[in-house]
Amino acid sequence: MATIRSIGTAPDLASRYLDDQLTPQERDAFEAKLISDPEVVQELERVARLKVGLAKLAESGELEALVHRPASETRRPAWAWAASIALVILAVGLWRTETDVTRAPMLAASLKALPVAASIASGSIERYTMLRTRSVDYDAIVIARPTAPIAELRILPGDTAHGPSFRATVYRLTADSEKAVARAEGLVADDSGYLTAYLDTSKLSPGPYAFVIESSIPDDGSPIRERFLIKVARAADAGR
Amino acid sequence: MSLHAANRLLSPECQKLERELAQQYAGLRLLLTRRCGGNRELAADILQSAILTAWEKWQGGQIAQPELIAGYVFQTAINLLRNQVRSAAQRLNRSLEPAALDELPRDADDADSAVERDLAARVRSMLESIDNERDRVALKRFYLDEDDKHTICTDLGLSAVQFDKVLHRARGRLRALFEAKGFGPRDLFSFALL
Lengths: 240, 194
Known about the structure:
The complex is a heterodimer.
Chain A: H1 13-18, H2 24-34, H3 38-60, H4 63-68, H5 78-97, H6 100-103, E1 107-108, E2 125-130, E3 140-144, E4 150-155, E5 166-173, E6 178-187, E7 195-200, E8 207-216, E9 223-234
Parallel strand pairs in A: 2-4, 3-9
Antiparallel strand pairs in A: 1-7, 4-7, 5-6, 5-8, 8-9
Chain B: H1 3-9, H2 12-24, H3 26-35, H4 40-59, H5 69-92, H6 98-102, H7 110-128, H8 133-144, H9 149-156, H10 160-180
Helix pairs in contact in B: 1-4, 2-3, 3-4, 4-5, 7-10, 8-9
């Protein structure tokens, strides 16, 4: 009889057994374990549940989207959400200690809601479309120009069908933390599915930021959360 | 013995064992049903026949401990299924692969549908927790499409060790999901106390 590695070191055996893909020798060895080790039955049961669950997801049409979704659409496990909530609480605490820099709106769902808009010409707005491009370091590089301190950010969420309205938050990223510096509520997708937000770049230090949009799924309340990485650069530094 | 005959021969103890197996090993029972083209009656007959065989071994002292009975049941059931699939393929004069059987129309059953939806939700959570698309593709191709490991590794640029790690991590996450939400396996002892 062929020897068989332990289930722990041969994670494919249970699935291949269920799929009738083992050689007769492998099958004999696996069945010898199956009738002598209750853990092998449990392993078989877990794999069967996985197969049934995958088949059900495929039948419902969900599976392809789950398998091929962009990396940043990952729903976080509970501990990660807890960590995120803790970070948000920390950020809110820090935010409340900030000066006028963050108390005045820096991010808004409409141009009119941004105070700096009143003092600039209508043509001096930089426009950016944020697409998730993991092949480069940032999804967008925002140039902060003194003559054009407003950036119009257009974002295409992965799915706007589940949420009529989104919230956007800008986080300043440092080596060991991230700090919320601006937030806007009520972003609504236009006919082409894009959300638009307006950012006052004059109050942002150059460096990396995260731009996070969040919504809720009406069915179960789970949030949709997408995160884009942006870099703010001064006009003179843009090419560096 | 015909499979239908097995049903009539089940003693109360066997029927209790059948109920416990159906509850604790819902994944295997549902997979069996899918592999029978959704024919729940045929799947139930296969399972009952396997239970009867295992029960006779237990009564005859060929199974030393009650916790080993489930292994005998599923060994027998899967072998009966294999024979069923092969004879069906012969009757149809074509290859009838398990994956093809999965796609045949299935009987509706609310209780089974609810369990399948629950399993799908847990698998969805597992997939959502995996950041690497390549890993998710590997899992789908291996567990659902039944592609062989070598082909998947070649297509996705994975080594055999990397592939095993992908499977190992996914199963670990799934195990935690099943057991954390009260869907974990229990021991099959209570029927033996009758």
